[in-house]
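call fold(seq) -> tokens
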Amino acid sequence: MSGQAYDIKSNLRFINYVVNEIRFKYNDQFKMESVKIDFNVKKNIAYNEQNNSAVVTLDVNVFDDCVENNYPFSFYVRVSGFFEVTNLESKDEKMLIEANAIAILFPYVRSLISSFTVNANVSPLILPPINVLKLFQKEQKD
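ret:
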């Protein structure tokens, strides 16, 4: 074993999150059939370097245009997570912090959607995990 110690502490600390907005629309014209989960995620990250904080906002749309696309419902949620950040010295460090913040926040979004759909008396929806790096690549293309 090497005597070298590694600093594994993160430059990111999760403080809390809030649900900013939820919209749910039931499609009473839905024709029962197998449906592939269709959703998209958009992110917005705002830094406040004076108090070493960041707000990460995720907008998640599930089953957009439910009537036109024969989805059982449509669902939109906006969630903001509050983080303490330190050492934003390089672009790579900033991207790593952003990716980790999204990876921390997204499970709360998934849980919220699952709980809401169960309580709305529709088939419970469990979103799959997302690949945060592909989300960044997709947003750079758009």
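The chain has a mean pLDDT of 87.
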